[in-house]
Amino acid sequence: MLAEMTERRRQILKLVIQAYIETSAPVASDHLVRRYGLNVSSATIRNELAALEDLGFLTHLHTSAGRVPTDAGYRFFVENLMERPSLTAVEQRAIRHEFYRAHTALDQWLDLAGTVMARTANNVSVILPPRGAAARLRSVHLISIHDMLALAVVVFHDGMVRQQTIAFESMQTQDDLMRLATFVNELCHDASVAQIRERLDHVPEHVDAAARQLMDLVCTTMRQYEDALDSDIRADGLMQLLEQPEFAQTDRVKQMLELVQSGQAIAPLIPLVTRSDGVQVIIGTEHERQDMRDMSIVLARYGVDDEIVGVLGVVGPTRMPYARAIATVRYIATVMSDLVGELHGEPRNGAESQIQD
């Protein structure tokens, strides 16, 4: 098949896909000649379009005289015809500035990443928070609310924060709470739930009930966090979705949002992405879900090596501007990896080095 892809056919396929992505209208031979000033006749272009259709890269829509790309055509475009995508230096600096002026909190970075990806790629964004093999405690802090009531702020090793109220059996001053938190932090820093439970079983008898109660609360909070991680897929870009002609029908928009927000759209792909380097592109019928066969997904992993890994990307119709989507996902993954690394004591390698003029 590739031997039949002459240079002219490659160029025509590239132009058809670019035109269809831009207009969402089937592309006819006359349009190609006029739009791109091709030095061949419309009849010659029609013959080449027919050949590309025979090769499986183009198809007809109903009785239209124009052609539209098939999933195989998009795949050939992404792998062989598309220029290496990158955001401009100005865009990269602007995005980096948005992240670096935000507060040093993973939750805020996740929300910002979703917003920036949706806006830049003009499609729906998805992001799964980073996680390790098991949740680990970084620290716990206690803030007095009342004599026997406090707010426990549990900080995980991956930078996520959860808050729980805790009612003690005896009065606790703020100084008491500070001493209690210090004890638990020294005993349980960087520990998993199983490790904290084991240490709790071996805590000396003289340790008061408040410390045991706090350690038990930390374990419960960490377990709840682990259980929720796999379904904690955040989505952004409703307006971008509504602007796509493929989603003119309200029912399809609702179905798409449910698939994305529930995690059903990308959950089967997470193991593939977390084991892979670079950006992964899943086009239409390559997706195992029948209700995702008219969609494409661009995903990448981010995080710290294989220790703490998350997934982010964009979802949209197969008529997706792939170069833009891939460039956006790649760059945001780089920035998020830097930020997650900093949370864990790794110096930022600097998105500066990723800027290309």
Structural class: alpha+beta
Low-confidence stretches: 350-357
**Cα-based radius of gyration, to the nearest Å:** 26 Å
- Look at the structure and give the CATH class of the largest domain: Alpha Beta
Q: Strand order within the widest sheet?
A: 7-3-10-9-8
Q: Total helix count?
A: 13
Largest sheet: 5 strands, antiparallel
Helix content, binned percent: 40-55%
Q: Give helix and strand order, one letter per element, not per position.
A: HHHEEHHHEEEEHHHEHHHEEEH
Mean model confidence by pLDDT = 86
Strand content: 15-25%
Topology:
Elements: H1 7-23, H2 29-36, H3 42-54, E1 58-60, E2 67-69, H4 71-81, H5 89-100, H6 106-121, E3 124-131, E4 137-146, E5 149-156, E6 161-167, H7 174-188, H8 193-201, H9 209-229, E7 234-236, H10 238-242, H11 250-262, H12 270-274, E8 279-283, E9 295-304, E10 308-317, H13 322-343
Antiparallel strand pairs: 1-2, 3-7, 3-10, 4-5, 5-6, 8-9, 9-10
Helix pairs in contact: 1-3, 1-4, 2-3, 6-13, 7-9, 8-9
